[in-house]
Design brief:
There is one protein chain. The chain is of the alpha/beta class. It is 32% helix and 22% strand. The protein has six helices and nine strands. Helix 1 links the parallel strand 1 and strand 2. The chain starts with a strand and ends with a strand.
Length: 204
């Protein structure tokens, strides 16, 4: 019997947390999660996919049902300390997490601050394999859109193995969900977990 989890009216990360809690209690092979916003569709789909489910989405334009199916033989309860996002193994060096919550560095001259931030991101590659993950929050999510000044730099970082996460709630609030062209739509659960796993966190 397929378990249906109704997450309508809930904003991320609540749908992911509710789905995660169920999978910690049940070794389910089938699951349907009902949501009503695009950020939750992407986050829950990615979460189920990482847990070994084949994922499909059916939408009527208002609500979406995310269906997860996996082999009954492979179904098992989710470990309570399981990480929501798959971690890509890198070198033996440290794992540095960079969080960009603005489009500028510092306070004062906004134009100068924006130039500094662009320069900072363009220089991030100098961290080499130590740069592990980049998270875009608040107005920092604008860097993930088609009009971003640093889109090419972000593409290079992604190609080198850096995980780029983009806050889904921020994209929704700013009306930019359809403008995102790079990065995985994420939620606060992934952000908190990333901070816990990182060896060093740089927050700008």
């Amino acid at each position: 019997m397929t378990k249906k989890i109704d997450c309508r009216t809930l904003q991320c990360p609540a749908p992911v947390l509710k789905t995660k809690k169920f999978l910690e209690q049940e070794a389910a092979a089938t699951i349907d999660v009902i949501v009503d916003n695009e950020a939750s569709v992407e986050n829950v789909s990615r979460f189920l996919n990482f847990q070994g489910f084949e994922v499909s989405v059916d939408s009527d334009g208002i609500t979406s049902t995310i269906s997860g199916r996996r082999d009954h033989k492979k179904a098992k309860k989710l470990e309570t300390d399981s990480e929501p996002i798959k971690i890509k193994e890198k070198s033996d060096g440290q794992k540095i997490l960079v969080i960009l919550s603005s489009q500028q560095i510092g306070k004062g001259d906004d134009e100068l601050g924006q130039k500094l931030m662009v320069s900072f991101v363009k220089t991030l590659k100098e961290m080499g394999n130590d740069l592990w993950r980049l998270i875009l929050l608040n107005h920092g999510v604008k860097f993930s859109t088609k009009d971003s000044e640093i889109l090419e730099e972000l593409k290079e970082l992604k190609a080198s193995g850096v995980t780029i996460l983009v806050c889904g709630a921020c994209l929704t609030h700013l009306g930019l969900m359809n403008d995102k062209v790079i990065g995985e739509t994420t939620n606060m659960l992934d952000t908190v977990t990333s901070m816990q796993l990182a060896d060093k966190v740089i927050n700008l």
